[in-house]
Amino acid sequence: MPIVVRIDVELAKRKMSVGEFAERVGLTPANVAVLKNGRAKAVRFSTLEAMCRVLECQPGDLLEWVEDNHGASQTPYEAHR
58: buried, middle or exposed (CB in 10 Å: 19+, 13-18, 0-12)? Predict the structure, then answer.
């Protein structure tokens, strides 16, 4: 998937734990892990809004589109190798 989720970067900048983030956003830690690891197939705008509100950031700070050299989709791991 060419969308890389950068929640971990934003959490690290703020020294915020996944547990605290999950509680403040209204998600389970397991669902935050699904998002962080790029396994989510969709994100509700209301969830994205809550994440941005908690982290005081823009959606583009959390989500990044990356195209590989061949125009095919990449996993988040492949995008940063």
Answer: exposed
State the residue range of the domain holding 48: 3-79
| Per-residue pLDDT reduced to its tens digit, 18-55 | 999 999 999 999 999 999 998 999 999 999 999 999 99
Contact 11, 76 (CB under 8 A): no
SS (HEC) of the chain: CCEEECHHHHHHHHCCCHHHHHHHHCCCHHHHHHHHCCCCCCCCHHHHHHHHHHHCCCHHHHEEECCCCCCCCCCHHHHCC
Structural domains of the chain, count: 1
Place of tokens 């989510």: 40
CATH number, domain at 9?
A: 1.10.260.40
